[in-house]
Amino acid sequence: MRYRTACIVVLLLTISSTSSAQFPWQKPLKRDPAEIKRILGSIEKREPSRDLNIVWVWGIDKFHEKDTHEYAWVMDRYVNALLPRVPRVTVVPSMYFPKKELWEKADLVVFYFWSREQWDYDLIDAYQKRGGGLIFIHMALMQGSGEELSKRIGLAWDTRRGATKWGVLTTPVTLTDAALKSPIFKGFPAKFDLAEEFYWHLRGDPAGVTTLMTSPAGPAIANKPLDGPPRIEDLDGKKWPVMWTKEVGRGRVFVTGAGHNYFTFNDPYFRIILLRAMAWTMKESFDPFKPLVTLHLER
Question: pLDDT above 90 covers what percent of the chain?
Fold first, then answer.
C-alpha cells in the first residue's frame, strides 16, 4: 500500500508552518560524477542474502518552514521511490513510534522525526538484543530528557537547560581514523563539504561510541548567522561528533546529526553514507543499494 495521500496532507502542513528556515546561503552541493562512481565501486551482489524488513519512522513537523525537517517528503522518497527497488527489501512507514508487531518483524528501524511521545524502551531493548539495526537522523535525537535514548544510541539531545546547542555545520567536515577504516566511509576523502546543521553538548558518553565524523561548533542558535557561514575566529576548535556508530547487544546503531536540509537527502555523498549505514546495521552488502545513490535527485 502506498502512502502518497497522507504525504500530500503532511507536506501541506509542513509548507504552512512558520518557524526557522534553512540558512539562505546554504545550497545543494555539486558532486563530481567521476568521484561518486569511484567511491561507489562496482556492483558484485545484485540482491541481499536474505529478505529484509525496514521500518521508516516519521511524523508531522509544525515548527520548521518548508525545505527543512521534511519528514514526510523524505519518508515518501525512501519508502516509495527508492528502497522498494532493492530486491528482497520490504519497507513500511510508521507514523510515530512503531507498534510491537513492526519491531518483531524489522531488520532495521530508521527514525527521522521529532518525537514528543513516551517511548516503550523495552521494545527497543528486546530488538537490539536480538540484533536489530537502528538509524537515527537529526532531530530524532530529541526524545524525552535524552537519558534513556542515549543508553541505546550513545548520544542524544539533552533537554536540561543550557545543555545541547545547535547551529551551522561548518565545512569541511572531518572524518576520524575510525571512519577511514569503516565500510560506511570507504573511499571518501578525509575532509569534504556538507551544507548542514548539527548539535553539540549531547547527553551521553562520547567514549562509548565510535565517532566517524567531527566538526567544530560555531555560533549557537539555528537562525544565525544569516549572512554566511561562521568565520574561523567564531569556531570553538573542538571535535564534536556529527556521525557515529554503536553496538548494543547484537544490534548495530548509526546516528547522524546532519539531516536538517531537504536537499541533503538528494546529496549523493549523504545517500552513500546513509545507504551504507543501512547495509552495515543489517550486516548486509551495500552492493544492492548502490543504484539508489543517483536515482531521483531532483526535488
Answer: 75
